[in-house]
Amino acid sequence: MVEKFLINTITAWEEPPRARHQLAFSLAKNHQVIFVTRNKTGLPNIREYHPQKNIKVIEPVFPIDYKYRYRLPAINELYQRWLFRWLKKNISFDHCINFDFTAHYISNFFKNAIYYCNDDYIGNSKYPVWIINKYHQRCESIVIKNALFCIVTATFLENKLKRINRNTFLIPLGAPDLKDINVIPKQTTDTGKITVSLMYVGTRKLDHNLLNDLLLKGDVNIVCIGPRDNEFERKIISNDNISFKGVLKGDDLYQEINKADVGIAPYDLQKSNKGVTPNKLWQYFAVGKPMVISDIPNLAYFDFPDKFVYVYKSNSECYTLIKKAHLENNSLLIESRSKFAESNSWDKRADKFLSIAGDFSDHNPV
Fold it and tell me: What is the pTM for the complete model shown?
């Protein structure tokens, strides 16, 4: 039976694929998806468009930019009431999946809203303010408590949310399906330099000093994939061994990372929270790449096969592990990583989500 899923987010549709996009893509293979984005700035209005089959994007327009809006209690709640009232009146759907941790009014309009949590958002700001953190803490607590059930992507988040809502279930992040991205994983040609792929959505949590150290080595090329960020580029030394590809999606994204030797995720642990989950791992695995990553807390709960992930505990180890990952790579490992990703695809994550949702299907409709 084809069902309709409303996915409420504070994310742009045009961003590189994140958990909410990946879930939308997988659900849309057999169901209809309505994806509500963060608001654009302008006079109050609702824009709608269809980027692909079975997906409708709802793009709210509101006078206050979303970066400020969701941090201002009175404005954020005015926005929620306006948006959810419009959705209730104009959009029909079977399931409401909420990725917005501040959307505590959602349960007033849709009784069976599901909270999908893939990060620890409280205090996770470039400029943390105590009173805003308290507001966000209150909002998320209400969202968790009133959710029909909660989905989390990491054990840390599972432990946190279960204290408020016992109907909390762990579904890790997943990999894209190779059939969807039109890429054949391959080993790159030895050019005397190691090409390193760096995918990012935001650059604030990246370790800029580590990246500069790698660039100074001379035998590492860093290919950056993500939105151009002037602040980020000012912190990186001018160097012929770094290039910026901008935002890439779909086939373009995976064709680009397929050219790399190694993928890296150099988190600045002083700025990263305990809820960070390594979504990039699965994207690199899909095209057979090894991953070098900082020792973020959630890695302790994953059991990856040997020579898939190389974890550095200090910056001095990172360069050594990049060279090791490159040296140890071979066609068998590339194939193994790709198959491992296939067995942990977003389609399989979506199936698990649908199974859980089915167990709650006898509750009142939204």
Answer: 0.91
Residue with tokens 């894209």, as numbered in its chain: 176
What kind of fold does domain 178-343 have according to CATH?
Rossmann fold (3.40.50)
The single residue listed with the structure tokens 């001095």 is 316
Domain spans of the chain, in order of start:
4-174+345-359, 178-343
Match 């999606």 to its residue by tokens. Answer: 249
Find, among 285, 329, 257, 20, the residue nearest to 176 by Cα: 285
Q: Print burial letters for 215-243: b (CB count within 10 Å at least 16), e (below 16).
A: beeeebbbbbbbbebeebeeebeeeebbe
Q: Which CATH homologous superfamily contains domain 4-174+345-359? A: Glycogen Phosphorylase B; (3.40.50.2000)
Instruction: Tell me how far the alpha carbon of residue 317 is from its chain's centroid.
Output: 26
Burial call 105-137: b when 16+ CB within 10 Å, e when fewer: bbbebbebbbbbbbbbbbebeeeeeeebbebbe
pLDDT for 84-95, tens place per residue?
Answer: 999 999 999 999
Alpha carbons within 13 angstroms on the beta-carbon side of residue 23 total 29
Residue 95's Cβ-count burial label (10 Å; 0-12, 13-18, 19+) is: buried
Q: Which tens digits make up the pLDDT trace of 333-363?
A: 999 999 999 999 999 999 999 999 999 876 5
